[in-house]
Amino acid sequence: MTFPEWKALASATPKALPILLLADGICESGTESITYVRLAQHKLPLARQVWIDGKRVDFLIGRRLVVEVDGAAYHIDPVRFELDRSRDARLCAIDFVVLRFSYNQVIYRWHEVERAVLAAVARGDHL
């Protein structure tokens, strides 16, 4: 979408402007962008594309809660699947809590994602 197209969309939907302004290109996929917009509404201490132990994570909430969002393609690539699980284990070994969600969860079952993230924050997993 070009800037004039984006500007026209923003002008036509003033109620959506705060949400549209969150689309700043930092997230690396549409699924991550959707996750960010939805989580940002909860006013969590949320950072995107954070480097931890030489690798980037999709989201970091507070100091310790990592949220990873897998696109649909990752579920059919067994090598990528295993690499992600190894990375999750490494993060847990250095005192991070990792929550990983699928494309289907983010798009079709957001309530599962939201409930898990908010429960982790309520437990203090992000501190």
What does this structure look like?
There is one protein chain. The protein is an alpha+beta fold. A hairpin with a 3-residue loop joins strand 2 and strand 3. It is globular, with a radius of gyration of 16 Å. The mean pLDDT is 85.
Number of E-type strands: 4
Cα distance, first to last residue?
Answer: 38 Å
Low-confidence stretches: none
Q: Radius of gyration from the CA trace?
A: 16 Å
Write down the overall mean pLDDT.
Answer: 85
Share of β-strand residues = 15-25%
Give a short account of the largest sheet: 4 strands, mixed
Structural class: alpha+beta
Tally of individual helices: 6
Question: Approximately how much helix is present in the residues?
Answer: 40-55%
Order of helix and strand elements from N to C terminus = HHHEEEHEHH
Q: Which outline best applies?
A: globular
Strands across the major sheet, in which order? Answer: 1-2-3-4
